[in-house]
Amino acid sequence: MILEYEGYQFMGAVSGQDGLAAIQRERPDAVLLDIKMPGMDGMEVLRKLHALDESLPIIMISGHGSTATTVDAIKSGAVDYFEKPLSTERVIVTLRNVLKQSELSAENRDLKLAMESRYEIVGQSPALRSVLESVQRASPTNATVLLLGESGVGKELVARTIHRNSPRSGQRFVQVNCAAIPEELIESELFGHEKGSFTGATEKQVGKFEQADRGTIFLDEVGDMSQKTQAKVLRVLQEQEVERLGSARTIKVDVRVIAATNKNLEEAIERGEFREDLYFRLNVIPIIVPPLRERREDIPRLVQHFAKRTAEEHNLKPKRFESSALEALSRYRWRGNIRELRNAVERLMIMTPADAVRVEDLPADMRNSESSPVRMPIPAAAATAPESAAANAVPKSDGQQPAGAGTLREFKDAAERAYLVQKLRENNWNISKTAEIIDTPRSNLYKKLEQYGIKQEVDG
Ligand SMILES: Nc1ncnc2c1ncn2[C@@H]1O[C@H](COP(=O)(O)OP(=O)(O)OP(=O)(O)O)[C@@H](O)[C@H]1O
Ligand SMILES: [Mg+2]
Question: Which of 203, 283, 288, 448 is least surrounded, with the fewest CB atoms within 10 Å of its CB?
Answer without folding.
Answer: 203
